[in-house]
Design a protein that fits this description.
It is a single chain. The chain is α/β, with parallel strands linked by helices. It has 34 helices and 29 strands. It has an eleven-stranded mixed beta sheet, sandwiched between helices. A six-stranded mixed beta sheet has the order 26-25-20-19-27-28, with helices on both faces.
Length: 1015
């Protein structure tokens, strides 16, 4: 039979007793530790339901009692981060904790696959969940009078899978499977088949089990299946029954060919899976040796392997005498004739018990990790092997110590058998070897994002700890992966570095200041708008932006391209002058084309990276690159004109200078009266003016200003730019510009010749460029108009931060926030400045195309620690027997950013004063109180800019409840049209605005100030 397409395990996450993640799980297995413990008080009173097992088979077992007080329990099963998934606290409190655990585990598994969960949104990704227990429904739905819509949606097997699909926006198959103990391995089988049938390109295969009541313990005891010490002892002479356990795990699966094409890391490969049924055996709960044997034979045959190929088997291995004996017989029929040594045999149930609905995936992950680490963990109780099983005669062996696997392809097998006779089996192989070496000296920028500042700190530290153990040549690859996977949440930190120790140190330092980070949008609504501000002459310096050329392939490409256009007009490569640090770059004939080249290449790089300008402004020579960015001037024409402009100016006598004066232009102009060879060269701010012209006259003005104690500073320049001394070259340059392109800009251009935005049919024609030589640079007026236009981000394009300080002073007078950035701060900029700039822009809310920073060899996915969720929210119900009331174990620690009230108590009985800058009136306070009451939110954590659907978890059910509460609180409104309300429910502030608009006179409206106005 032709082998079918192998399926790659590319990501995983899990929580099992004694292990909070896959790394701890592997340590537990390798150390051979016992993960069982006494039943936590949170679950039920273990002593209340305990009775010692009868001493003889003739004695009746006490009804309603378990023979054990132990089991395998995961830590903090009640912890959840509802706000992360946009789930209201009240809804979260009603959800089966298995759904909550699956959501977080699924997110982490996708991240472990070096994928951003957001990138799977809208795709045909499938979700297949194995689940056996639904004890939450028993606890939640017993009181019929208290059942709400939340409780209905919080229960049901189907919701385990459907919630993952909904919250991650996955459009592929989504289903839950219950075949008892084999549920999760059957779910894997269905996922494998869906991938092969191309029903989906990614699949999340999962299993979950939580022990919330003693019901199954009592059942196992009554059926004679329960181990008194709560431990499974598979294939041991002391095997005496099942110890129950819980857990949750998610695997991310892809077709192997797709994973390899994307250079995705692969843990192991699923070669074949299969399922069958026992049919009629000695009893519906009794295993069927022949069915097990037939299934294993079938799967091995389809996988193209024999017993000689299989190095180890992760058995079902529950530790019941009958189950172990039948499983050993079925396997032995296949392995007893094996050449060579024995097949290693084990069962993870020896470490923490039988995880029931999650048991199959627990064993599968053990096998996957063993193949990944090329080591099989030891088996607990191997020293007490049951001689009646004759494992040695069947060429099977329990491992007393870890088994090192050989190089090359290694195969393993996993079995999981359901109590009702549904069996599953899988054959795995080690992942194909793939080596993707990164460049050892390549820099990068590492990005970390989180939902809150507190989570940002925790995640920064987790990444730093992991990176400290990573090989140095993977720096850029790890950074590129973080850009893909860790960059979508609102609180952000970016650290650029050229080596791992620097990066690790930077991440830890960023963690110290994580509490200071603002949301990436700062509460801003609407899309960001970016302006490019192009620096003028005087910003040049030797080796300017050489670090960009070395560390950013895209910039190097654009600088090479523009240099080829400029070189014929200058007779020399300005690129080479820049990279060589040649002092000739200071001469006007080379400085102007070099500044243009740098500005053009920077702007082209950012534009290619998706940081596209909505506006442009240029200072003096910077207007040429600005005109190119706006589409008003062809690049080839600009290259010719800037070279000619610089050459013409250099031919002028060097008898002029420039003086920066800390006065307003109106105060300076009277000083120029009668001085025909002086003029105002630039107005950079309300009290920032530059005078330019004849050195002698300039000295006289300087002396007069010094006498007045006015701040003055002589500028280091070769000529008196933008002064009457430039007039001799104006007409010649006008002729040079005559045949240049002359078209309207495609973007708004804020002209520093006119001091305003170009309007109507205005173009940057020959007259414009000629006038620009002598006219003052009216930067303050033009920049003021730009800031008034509503720009959100300004990036200074050039080799030095010249305009950014000027804009900062102008911004202080504005009425909205503007984020200012300098592409290259100057001579002392770090060698990885492009990476640093991309990180700054991303932290400020923009979305660059990170690929431009990395060579192909560095664009390789690497596993990074997955997201650490907020665990302050807690909700649980103790597993009490009917009519035996016990207090709920639910709690919300102080400082939690969300709250739950599963007992029915309402939150938001009062609303604190609105934070500064938010709506302070009683209508706003009432609205916030109602929103908090419906969703169960902490009023201190709800703000006007919060989105009701995405941030506060308001779905259609909660919207209808909110509508009813508003109508009761504000009866004069009458019935609110639901379509209007839905249209107004973008943010809390929008809702307040809508309600205010519905009231004739909001100040006279009866707005209750106490909880009596709510239901």
């Amino acid at each position: 039979m032709t082998e079918r397409e192998p399926i790659a395990v590319v990501g995983l996450d899990c929580r099992f007793p004694g292990a909070r993640d896959a790394q701890e799980y592997w340590s537990l297995l390798m150390d051979g530790r016992d993960g069982t413990d006494r039943v936590p008080e949170q679950r039920w009173d273990a002593d209340r339901y305990h009775a010692v097992s009868p001493h003889s088979a003739q004695e009746a077992r006490p009804p309603g009692r378990s023979n054990t007080v132990r089991g395998g329990f995961i830590a903090d099963p009640d912890a959840f981060d509802p706000g992360f998934f946009g789930i209201a606290p009240r809804e979260a409190a009603a959800m089966d904790p298995q759904q909550r655990l699956l959501l977080q585990c699924a997110w982490r598994a996708v991240e472990d696959a070096a994928l951003a969960p957001q990138d799977l949104a809208g795709t045909d990704t499938g979700v297949f969940v194995g689940v056996m227990a639904n004890e939450w429904a028993f606890l939640q739905l017993a009181d019929y009078d208290r059942i709400t819509a939340r409780h209905g949606l919080g229960n049901g097997y189907f919701m385990g899978a459907n919630r993952v699909s909904y919250h991650l926006d996955l459009k592929g198959p989504s289903l839950a499977v219950d075949t008892a103990c084999s549920s999760s391995l059957v779910a894997v089988h269905l996922a494998v088949n869906a991938l092969r049938a191309k029903e989906c390109d990614h699949a999340l295969a999962a299993g979950t089990n939580l022990i919330m009541t003693p019901v199954i313990n009592i059942f196992y005891n009554q059926a004679g299946l329960s181990a008194p010490d709560g431990r499974c002892k598979p294939f041991s002479a002391s095997a005496d029954g099942i110890g129950r356990a819980e857990g949750v795990a998610v695997l991310v699966l892809r077709r192997l060919s797709d994973a390899l094409a994307d250079r995705q890391p692969v843990y192991a490969v699923l070669k074949e899976t299969g399922t069958n049924q026992d049919g009629r055996s000695n009893g519906i709960t009794a295993p069927n040796r022949w069915a097990q044997q037939q299934l294993i034979e079938s799967v091995w045959r389809r996988a193209g392997v024999t017993a000689d190929d299989v190095r180890f088997v992760e058995a079902h291995g529950t530790g019941t005498l009958l189950g172990d004996f039948i499983e050993a017989q079925a396997l032995g029929e296949l392995t007893s004739g094996r050449s060579g040594g024995s097949v290693a045999l084990g069962s993870v149930k020896s470490n923490f018990g039988h995880a029931e609905g999650a048991a199959g995936i627990a064993g599968l992950i053990k096998a996957v990790l063993a193949l990944h680490h090329r080591t099989v963990p030891p088996s607990r109780f191997a020293d007490d092997e049951n001689p009646r099983l004759d494992l040695a005669g069947r060429r099977l062996s329990l491992l007393r110590s870890p088994l090192k696997l050989p190089s090359g392809t290694v195969h393993a097998a996993v079995s999981s058998f359901g109590m009702g006779g549904s069996n599953a089996h899988a054959v795995l192989a080690s992942a194909p070897r793939a080596v993707h070496r990164g460049r050892s000296a390549a820099p990068g920028v590492f990005t970390v994002s989180a939902r809150t500042p507190q989570r940002l700190r925790a995640n920064l530290l987790a990444q730093a700890d992991a990176l400290a153990r990573r090989p140095g040549n993977q720096l850029a690859q790890a950074c590129w992966t973080s850009n893909r996977v860790k960059s979508r949440l609102p609180h952000r930190a970016a650290v650029a570095a050229g080596d791992l120790p620097t990066l690790v140190s930077g991440l830890r330092k960023a963690a110290e200041h994580a509490e200071e980070t603002a949301r990436e949008d700062g509460g801003r609504r609407g899309a960001p708008s970016v302006a490019f501000a192009f620096t003028g002459q005087g910003a040049q310096h030797p080796r300017m932006t050489a670090s960009w050329y070395r560390s950013c392939p895209a910039y190097a490409r654009h600088l090479d391209e523009i240099d080829r256009l400029i070189a014929p007009h200058t007779g020399v490569s300005v690129r080479d002058l820049i990279l060589d640090g040649d002092a000739e770059i200071q001469r006007a004939r080379l400085a102007q084309p070099a500044l243009f080249a740098v500005g053009y290449a920077m702007a082209a790089t950012l534009t290619e990276a998706g940081i596209r300008p909505s506006y442009v402004i240029g200072h003096s020579i910077g207007e040429f690159a600005a005109a190119c960015a706006a589409g008003a001037l062809d690049v080839a024409d600009a290259a010719r004109l800037v070279a000619r402009r610089g050459a013409l100016m250099e031919k002028l006598p060097e008898d002029g200078g420039m003086l920066a004066v800390g006065l307003a232009a109106a105060e300076v102009e009277p000083l120029l009266a009668g001085r025909e060879r002086l003029g105002v060269a630039a107005v950079n701010g309300p009290r920032s003016t530059v005078i330019s012209g004849d050195l002698g006259e300039l000295a006289a003005v300087e002396a007069e200003l010094a006498g007045r104690k006015a701040p003055v500073r002589r500028l280091t320049v070769s000529h008196a730019f933008h002064s009457p001394l430039m007039r001799p070259v104006v007409e010649e340059f006008r002729r040079e510009c005559a045949d240049a392109s002359d078209r309207r800009p495609a973007l708004p251009v804020f002209s520093t010749v006119h001091g305003r935005e170009l309007s109507g049919e205005e173009t940057m024609d020959a007259d414009y460029w000629a006038r620009q030589i002598t006219d003052p640079v009216r930067f303050a007026e033009a920049a003021g108009a730009l800031l008034d236009a509503g720009v959100t981000h300004v990036v200074e394009i050039g080799p030095r931060a010249v305009l950014t300080p000027l804009l900062s002073r102008l911004r202080a007078d504005g009425d909205h926030a503007v984020s200012l950035h300098s592409a290259h701060p100057g001579e002392h900029a770090p060698g990885h400045r492009p990476q640093e700039l991309f990180g700054e822009l991303w932290c400020a809310g923009l979305t660059p195309d990170w690929d431009l920073l990395y060579a192909d060899a560095d664009r390789v996915p690497r596993r990074l620690p997955p997201y650490l969720f907020d665990e302050s929210f807690r909700s649980w119900r103790s597993g009490t027997a009917p009519r035996l009331v016990e207090p709920s174990a639910s709690s919300v620690p102080p400082g939690a950013d969300t709250t739950a009230a599963p007992s029915g108590a309402d939150l938001a009985e009062s609303s604190p004063p609105a934070p500064a800058g938010e709506l302070p009136d009683s209508l706003a306070a009432l609205t916030r109180r109602l929103v908090c009451r419906v969703g169960g939110h902490d009023p201190a954590q709800v703000h006007d800019h919060d989105r009701l659907h995405e941030d506060l978890g308001f779905d259609s059910i909660r919207v209808m409840e909110l509508k009813t509460r508003i109508e009761d609180a504000l009866p004069r409104l009458g019935p609110l049209p639901i379509e209007d309300l839905l249209a107004s429910l973008r943010t809390v502030a929008d809702l307040v605005g809508y309600l205010r608009g519905q009231l004739d006179d909001s100040s006279a409206s009866p707005v209750p100030a106490t909880p009596e106005g709510t239901r």
